From TrEMBL:
This is 7,8-dihydropterin-6-yl-methyl-4-(Beta-D-ribofuranosyl)aminobenzene 5'-phosphate synthase. GO terms for molecular function: transferase activity. Pfam families: Lactamase_B. The lineage of its organism: Bacteria, Pseudomonadati, Pseudomonadota, Alphaproteobacteria, Hyphomicrobiales. It comes from the Bacteria. It comes from Bradyrhizobium canariense. Residues 96-149 form the Metallo-beta-lactamase domain.
């Protein structure tokens, strides 16, 4: 599962179009291949709607011009809800133009919907949806969110997702009886039922004139995919993933360790500061993700690396190596969340003193003046 059948983007698009026609995926389109013109923004605000930890004693922090400040519940008798998962509200600004993107949706609708209420987030301002990858702790709250807020969103709202393998059946391993434990399967038909257009970003895409995605991330660093879920490459009755356009035919029906072929990162180019790379889980490697953002954008300066890095289960020697490689990228700020792990935060603070900012559910992170 490390040497995939790589084909050029035009063949990928053509193959997917045929598969989509056969399966009737009327709301799905592939992002067009080719170079993109990366926009520059003046400001970015990130609100952590859902993360894995809460801290009512959280205090504002600042590092290299980036600030984090707490977000408090509007109801003193109802705390913000933290759970294993991630959801970020991204609010970039370019000149007088302001946009609002929702990146990932946490594990449960109760968490994202409840926290939006308690943080007084106006859903009607959300104009774009983004999905990083097909893990349930990143899309489990999606349909409950849409059930509650779809009428508030633009009629033509679009979701930008990484690629076809978002829709594969996933398993959280095996239980004590040796049976596979279900970890969900994102069904594109449920997205269509909520009248959401879906764009698969296997190649880089500009979003809303202010963000860009990495597209499929090349794996050319020391990093490896650490153990996570199992994935099944199968499609039946319109559900599941059609892997024929990016995997060899013999992979059809196989259940194998998940390598997140099309996990992508969401990125911004901040004026006079450099790139902000947001990796929701970083299964394919946070260094790989940042390098891909640099290659796509042509921007060498890294202002911030943030999000989940999936290094909680990393062995100590491997963790030390990865943090050293991150240090070579010379980011101004490093902001670990979700699955990054306390072990990662400690190691990063040791190797990169003064550059690591922490957050909690509800936090607001501000980039730019």
């Amino acid at each position: 599962m490390t040497n995939f059948n790589r084909r050029d983007a035009l063949k990928v698009s053509a193959s997917f179009a045929l598969a989509a026609a056969a399966g009737g995926f009327s709301c799905v389109e592939m992002a067009k291949a080719g170079p993109i013109e990366v926009p520059t923004i003046d400001k970015l605000s990130v609100r952590v709607l859902v993360d894995s930890a809460s801290d009512i004693f959280f205090r504002p922090q600042t590092a290299n011009g980036v600030t984090t400040e707490p977000g408090r519940s509007a109801d003193s008798l109802r705390p913000l809800h933290s759970e294993w998962g991630l959801s970020l509200l991204l609010e970039p600004q370019r000149g007088d133009q302001k946009r609002t993107f929702l990146l990932d949706y946490g594990w449960t609708p109760e968490a994202i919907n409840g926290n939006m209420d308690l943080l007084k987030v106006d859903a009607s301002k959300i104009d774009t949806l983004i999905l990083s990858h097909g893990h349930f702790d990143h899309w489990g709250g999606l349909f409950g969110f849409l059930d509650k807020h779809r009428r508030d969103l633009p009629a033509d709202i679009t979701m930008y997702a990484g690629g076809e393998d978002n829709f594969c059946q996933r398993y959280a391993g095996k239980n004590a009886l040796g049976e596979l434990s279900d970890f969900g399967m994102l069904d594109r038909r449920d997205i269509a039922k909520h009248d959401v257009k879906l764009v698969l970003c296997e190649t880089p895409v500009v979003i809303g004139g202010q963000a860009f995605t990495t597209g499929k991330i090349k794996r050319n660093s020391i990093e490896k995919v650490l153990p996570n879920t199992l994935v099944e490459f199968k499609q039946k009755d319109g559900a599941g993933c059609n892997a024929s356009h990016y995997l060899p035919a013999e992979m059809e029906g196989k259940i194998v360790p998940d390598e997140h072929i099309h996990e992508h990162a969401t990125c911004f180019n901040l004026k006079d500061k450099g790139l902000i790379v947001i990796s929701s889980c970083g299964h394919v490697g946070i260094v790989n993700s940042v390098r891909q953002a640099m290659e796509v954008s042509g921007v060498e300066k890294i202002h911030a690396i943030m999000g989940g890095f999936h290094l909680g289960p990393a062995p100590a020697d491997y963790l030390t190596q990865v943090v050293s490689e991150i240090g070579k990228l010379n980011p101004d700020v490093l902001i670990p969340m979700h699955c990054s792990g306390l072990n990662f935060t400690r190691e990063a603070q040791q190797q990169m003193p003064g550059k690591v900012l922490t957050t909690t559910t509800g936090s607001r992170i501000t980039f730019g003046i």
